[in-house]
């Protein structure tokens, strides 16, 4: 921390999603339901893809890790958020805030690259099916997932360290419902050029690279589907592709809106609503979009509910 004659901040106060007292209890129940569905959906996916022998394929291996990431991301944010709906003073200690930011960055960066990995997996499966088990072998799957987690952890350490390398002095009210980079840097009483540059370069690099992989993969998938002769086959392929692209578009769209714009253009209230999508809503929707509409997962769930002992 930079030395100075200011009183160093030891805790922050979160304004929350809304500062209206009459909305606190209704919002608490809304987000409690969202978080409950998120936990139930993602834990179901993690369990089924771990114990069902018919789901031991690369696609469901990546899906399991996406569910782990979604569960982790929402759990870093939601419990503290729910508590703050019920208390008058929404405080978070300095190191608690730093920890939340670091964990949030780990999971959000991991999700960005896991979606890219899943898009590549579908590209190989649809466009090069004969080489699928060679190109996406178990060793390659483990390598891709390990690199995703290692890179996201490294990025989180660098970014969160740069955000908390500046001084926070008099103002400690964060205009957000969790400790995020932009509202935190807005409170700093020292020069924020370096951390702002780190955040912008990191976000832009991650988004451009992962979006390039996703766009190239799905473009080739669409071209392959268009070559399918039976119209029913094309409809089925497009239905799956559309669902995936819908989730990817919402996720990347909100991240681009949040981070790939100049600091002066930020509206904190608008950013809060965008943040709700990728911290709470998307983790709830992903189990539905990626798996609960999937016949293999529904069949595995049915087998588990009818005869859970068969999975032992």
UniProtKB/TrEMBL annotation:
Residues 41-290 form the G-protein coupled receptors family 1 profile domain. The keyword Membrane applies. It comes from the Eukaryota. It is a multi-pass membrane protein. It is found in: Cell membrane; Membrane. Coiled coil: none annotated. InterPro entries: GPCR_Rhodpsn, GPCR_Rhodpsn_7TM, Olfact_rcpt. Gene3D superfamilies: Rhodopsin 7-helix transmembrane proteins. Its main location: membrane. Pfam families: 7tm_4 (PF13853). The chain crosses the membrane at residues 28-49, 61-87, 93-118, 200-226, 238-261, 273-293. The keyword Nuclease does not apply. SUPFAM superfamilies: Family A G protein-coupled receptor-like (SSF81321). Keywords: Cell membrane, G-protein coupled receptor, Membrane, Olfaction, Receptor, Sensory transduction, Transducer, Transmembrane, Transmembrane helix. PANTHER family: OLFACTORY RECEPTOR. Putative odorant or sperm cell receptor. Belongs to the G-protein coupled receptor 1 family. This is Olfactory receptor. It comes from Equus przewalskii. The gene is LOC103541881.
């Amino acid at each position: 921390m930079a030395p100075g004659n200011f009183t160093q901040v030891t805790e922050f106060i979160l304004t929350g999603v809304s500062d209206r007292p009459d909305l606190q209890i209704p919002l608490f129940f809304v987000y409690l339901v969202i978080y409950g569905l998120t936990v139930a959906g993602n834990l179901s996916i993690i369990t089924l893809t771990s114990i069902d022998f018919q789901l031991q394929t690369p696609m469901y291996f990546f899906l399991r890790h996406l569910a782990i990431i979604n569960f982790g991301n929402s759990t870093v944010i939601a419990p503290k958020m729910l508590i703050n709906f019920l208390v008058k003073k929404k405080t978070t200690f300095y190191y608690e805030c730093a920890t939340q930011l670091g964990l949030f960055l780990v999971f959000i960066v991991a999700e960005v690259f896991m979606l890219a990995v899943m898009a590549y997996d579908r590209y190989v499966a649809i466009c090069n099916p004969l080489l699928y088990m060679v190109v996406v072998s178990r060793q390659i799957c483990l390598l891709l997932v390990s690199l995703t987690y290692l890179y996201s952890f490294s990025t989180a350490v660098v970014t969160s360290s740069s955000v908390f390398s500046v001084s926070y002095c008099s103002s400690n009210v964060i205009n957000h419902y969790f400790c995020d980079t932009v509202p935190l840097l807005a409170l700093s009483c020292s020069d924020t050029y370096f951390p702002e540059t780190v955040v912008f370069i990191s976000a832009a690099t991650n988004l451009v690279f992962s979006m390039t992989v996703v766009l190239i993969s799905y473009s080739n998938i669409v071209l392959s589907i268009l070559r399918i002769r039976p119209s029913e086959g094309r409809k089925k392929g497009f239905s799956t592709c559309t669902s995936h692209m819908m989730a990817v578009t919402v996720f990347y769209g909100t991240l681009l809106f949040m981070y790939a714009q100049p600091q002066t253009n930020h509206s904190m209230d608008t950013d809060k609503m965008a943040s709700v999508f990728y911290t709470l809503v998307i983790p709830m929707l992903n189990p539905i979009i990626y798996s609960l509409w999937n016949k293999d997962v529904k069949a595995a769930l049915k087998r588990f509910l009818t005869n859970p002992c068969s999975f032992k």
